[in-house]
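User: Predict the complex with nicotinamide-adenine-dinucleotide.
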Amino acid sequence: MKTSEIKTVSCIGAGVIGYSWALYFSLKKLDVTVYDISEESLELAKKRVHDSLNSLIKNEVVNEMEGKEIEQGILYTTSVEEAVKDAQFIVESVPEDYDIKRNIVKEIESFTSDETIIASSTSGLLITEIAKDAKHPERFIGAHPYNPPHLIPLVEITKGEKTSESVVTTAKEFYSSIGKEPVVLQKEALGFICNRIQMALYREVCDLVSRGVCSVEDADKAVTYGPGLRWGIMGPSLVFQLGGGENGIQGLLKHLGPSINLWLEDMADFKEFPEEFGSLVQAGVDEEIKNRPPEIGNDDASLAEYRDKMLIEMLKLHNKL
Ligand SMILES: NC(=O)c1ccc[n+]([C@@H]2O[C@H](COP(=O)([O-])OP(=O)(O)OC[C@H]3O[C@@H](n4cnc5c(N)ncnc54)[C@H](O)[C@@H]3O)[C@@H](O)[C@H]2O)c1
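Assistant: Here is the predicted structure with nicotinamide-adenine-dinucleotide placed in the model:
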């Protein structure tokens, strides 16, 4: 199938990720149908679409009239057949469970053409395993979004053993054509690219806090006002390229290598998060939230609102909205 033939998208599962995908596809003027087994989930999805659109209107991403069209462009149903029969591209965002995902894939395939691409939002399950019982494993891919998918451009595309290269190419082109930034994993890897990078960083946060080197608040502050600012512009390798002056990243690694090796020697390498870290970090986060001025969010709801507002400003700078 050619990317230009993708006009209708079906979102299967209308939770946190499914509603947000649906909103994004409608924003990009695709026809969208959302399916969920639960009427309540569909009602909640409608409300979430409405609230997120209000935030996009408030932040001048779309105007009120466009907001109405985007909202009306999404159809909701509890019939899989109705949801998928006309779709050229299907995004599955049901719970993270092999059995649930395998069953829904079988159900979807009973109503679709042999051309339709199915993309799973899975956060880390193996595509080969989800597609184990599929009639067409060659047209099944992983397309892992970052929450919320209607704002974060990254999509990590993963292949199963039987996924066809032409399906990966079409999916990559499709996501690019609607303003996403797809990256393709050449091999299956648990956690994909970004969750692995996030957890490598977070293992070190855990260790620094547990060893009493710094508070949770200072670790957050250090990332937000230090490397986090640069990472929002370019990736860590490009940042190091600039840090190495005329000798680039290779020069930087040569120059700092002996010091870096000493840090690495001292850094965390545990394979399981210590159980007691949960209560320790929660207390630290509660304290951090208490210390924040209200205008940058000082409870969960206002933090989420502030995050989305800042994301929108950054995406505008990246020409991504
Ligand atoms: N939440 C995140 O931050 C995040 C980020 C990236 C990827 N993901 C992945 O996205 C997927 C969905 O996660 P979520 O956070 O949206 O979960 P969720 O619990 O918010 O939503 C799941 C939805 O699926 C529905 N559902 C359950 N069984 C179903 C079935 N058989 N058919 C149709 N709908 C069914 C539920 O009613 C619910 O509305 C998971 O694979 C998850 O790993 C989540």
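The two ends are 27 Å apart (CA to CA).
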